[in-house]
Write a structure and sequence with these properties.
CATH class of the largest domain: Mainly Alpha
CATH topology of the largest domain: Arc Repressor Mutant, subunit A
CATH superfamily of the largest domain: Winged helix-like DNA-binding domain superfamily/Winged helix DNA-binding domain
Strand order of the largest sheet: 1-2
Distance between the termini: 42 Å
Largest sheet: 2 strands, antiparallel
Radius of gyration: 19 Å
Order of helices and strands: HHHHEEHH
Number of strands: 2
Shape: globular
Number of helices: 6
Helix content: over 70%
Number of domains: 2
Strand content: 5-15%
């Protein structure tokens, strides 16, 4: 590999593969779970709250890099659908924290298991060398995701700092 890394063609190729994987997984979930109608934005909020229960709307918006009003609307839809619960904050009664409801947890688990089955079946159909390459690439892909998140957080911080001047 060159000093510059994978280059523009490689970066585009990675972007293309990630996009195709997400699109295929999103559409294939409806084959296995025909009742599944959660938009990806709601699935991502369920995933975040499963990892970090007790976030407020502002914290959730910040973590997901979404506008607060967007998250507020999504949360309201999910509370109405019985997927999330709002509870008073322990130390600030004016604030609320969010948690998955039992139904929200069940939907998330069903969604995750369906995706895991789909990925497992696809991986089992690959040659050994491709399965091994995917396994070896996972730590690097996690590091890439963390780097992208850090850069985005940096950019948001810089924008906020400029706006405060």
């Amino acid at each position: 590999m060159s000093e510059e890394g994978i280059g523009a063609a490689g970066a585009w190729s990675l972007t293309d593969v990630i996009t195709r994987l997400r699109r295929t997984l999103r559409s294939s979930i409806r084959e296995e779970l025909p009742w599944e109608s959660l938009p990806m934005a709601q699935v991502e909020l369920l995933q975040r709250l499963a990892e970090e229960p007790g976030l407020g709307v502002s914290e959730l918006a910040e973590r997901q890099h979404l506008a607060r009003n967007t998250v507020s609307n999504l949360v309201q839809q999910m509370v109405t659908a019985g997927l999330l619960e709002r509870r008073p904050h322990e130390s600030d009664r004016r604030a609320v924290v969010l948690r998955l409801s039992g139904a929200g947890h069940e939907r998330l688990v069903a969604w995750q298991q369906a995706n895991e089955r789909r990925i497992r079946r696809a991986i089992e159909g690959l040659a050994d060398q491709h399965r091994e390459a995917i396994d070896l690439a996972l730590p690097a892909l996690r590091a890439l995701a963390a780097q992208l998140e850090a850069q985005e957080a940096e950019a948001v911080g810089a924008t906020v700092a400029r706006a405060g001047r």
